[in-house]
Amino acid sequence: MKKKFIGANWKMNLLQPELEVLLQELSTNSINEDSIEFVIFPSQIYLADCINRSNLTFGAQDIHSENNGAFTGAVSAEQVKSTGARFVLVGHSERRSVFQENNTLIKNKVNAALNNSLGLVFCCGESLDKREKALEKEFVLSQLEEGVLHLSGQHVAKCIIAYEPIWAIGTGKVANNHQIEGMHNFIRETLINKYGYEIAHAVRIIYGGSCTTDNAKEIFALNNVDGGLIGGASLNFESMNTLLNSF
Ligand code: PGA
After folding, report:
1. 3-state class (DSSP) for residue 244
2. pTM value > 0.85
3. Rounded to 5 degrees, what are φ and ψ at 229?
4. Diameter of the chain measured on Cα atoms
5. Which domains does the chain have, with CATH numbers?
């Protein structure tokens, strides 16, 4: 059976001493590894240290599309891989909006991740404006088409697609169950049309955007929701622990 996926996206939070405490707490936590894959995405600067200190699984919050070169401040997929990290987030809405990443760059990062055998968590999701104009499916479809649907079935089957409506990220405004299930079903159908039933069902489609201990159980039980990408609520051991036990 396909494992559920929970990602803790720590974003640009936590100083070294705080991170050590949280890591220690999470490391002693018993996660049912047969049914849940739990991956932490710390700031890049802490990645190697986290991997050396803990038996948990880690990923990078971003990569550059090139493997090396004169790109001051950037970190490549090859470098991430060499730390022992296993996953990477690509196309997070904060990268798309704050750092002006477009679909072409994101596609290059997707390819860099896969060329370096990193597990890909591909993020997509619409703005409030698109949702209010009922253009959310069209918009997410274009993100998928321009970002991941060029991949072979063999590659796509291993990907995780995170649906994160921008208007629900860090705002406390969670999408309702109907909206979440509607988009997850749409993403699954898109994958079925392109790759067939078996490959489409191997892909894990997870939800992100103000997921908390109050709503996670309900969200994770929805059709075609295979887990979550957690931001704010992942910075606290008690809430993260509850979220990991919400299936
Ligand atoms: P949030 O962030 O849970 O704080 O809304 C989710 C994300 O950005 O991945």
Report:
1. helix
2. yes
3. -115, 115
4. 48
5. 4-24+34-244 (3.20.20.70)
CA of 69 to the centre of ligand 1 (A): 31
d(CA 239, CA 67): 36
Give yes or no for a contact between 124 and 144, defined as CB atoms under 8 angstroms apart.
yes
3-class SS letters over 6-58: EEEECCCCCCHHHHHHHHHHHHCCCCCCCCEEEEEECCHHHHHHHHHHCCCEE
Ligand 1 pocket: which of 95, 211, 239, 243 to mutate (most atoms within 8 A of CB) = 211
Question: 224 CA distance to ligand 1 centroid (A)?
Answer: 19
To the nearest 10 degrees (0 to 180), the angle between helices 177-195 and 136-147 is 40
**How does pLDDT run along the chain (247 residues), one tens digit per residue?**
899 999 999 999 999 999 999 999 999 877 888 999 999 999 999 999 999 999 999 999 999 999 999 999 999 999 999 999 999 999 999 999 999 999 999 999 999 999 999 999 999 999 999 999 999 999 999 999 999 999 999 999 999 999 999 999 888 888 999 999 999 999 999 999 999 999 999 999 999 999 999 999 999 999 999 999 999 999 999 999 999 999 9
* Ligand 1 close to Cβ of residue 44 (< 6 A): no
Q: Is 125 in the pocket of ligand 1 (CB under 6 A)?
A: no
Residue 168 CA: which ligand 1 atom is closest?
5
